[in-house]
Design brief:
Elements: H1 2-5, H2 17-20, H3 28-44, H4 52-66, H5 70-82, H6 127-141, H7 149-161
Helix pairs in contact: 3-4, 6-7
Length: 162
């Protein structure tokens, strides 16, 4: 019926890229993927998976052994099934992290990741510093001469310190 009406059409799988994708060895994404797979593996390989009572028993067992929530397990299982029943289906969605294109209003503490090795806390980027960034980028990086990034950084520091 749908074929005759021409209302049926092929849709590209939005998760087909996961089949060939390989995260870097030891990366956070790979570690989380493997942990999540290990967590749901006893449930998804259960022969009686489609029997709600058997599945519930398996989920309760995993919850007791791994100190996780039912919500987390169901979310991971759903993600696994919706994205093609492959291990890479459990990769974290880092592309959805952050607030791309949105300005953050700085408070008392500095925005972003804290420094690991250097002392101090850094400086929040206000409108003045943002303006200096824009000037330095246009003047030293987006030119035909194409100055190096370290050179542009030194010029920016000179502008900032004066």
């Amino acid at each position: 019926m749908a074929i005759q009406d021409e209302s049926l059409h092929r849709v590209e799988d939005p998760y087909s890229y996961l089949i060939m994708f390989s995260p870097e060895d030891g990366s956070t994404a790979q570690v989380k993927r493997d942990q999540n797979y290990k967590l749901i593996s006893p449930i998804i390989h259960l022969e009686e998976y489609y029997q709600p009572k058997q599945r519930a028993k398996a989920i309760d067992l995993v919850m007791a052994n791994h100190k996780t929530t039912k919500q987390t397990l169901y979310r991971l299982i759903r993600q696994y099934w919706q994205r093609g029943q492959i291990v890479n289906a459990l990769l974290p969605d880092y592309k959805n992290s952050g607030a791309k294109g949105k300005k953050r209003t700085p408070g008392k503490t500095k925005l972003g990741r804290p420094r690991k090795y250097d002392p101090g806390s850094g400086v929040n980027v206000d409108e003045f510093i943002e303006k200096l960034f824009r000037i330095a980028i246009q003047k030293y990086l987006l030119t035909e001469k194409g100055y190096s990034f370290p050179y542009a950084h030194r010029r920016f520091k000179d502008m900032y310190e004066t």
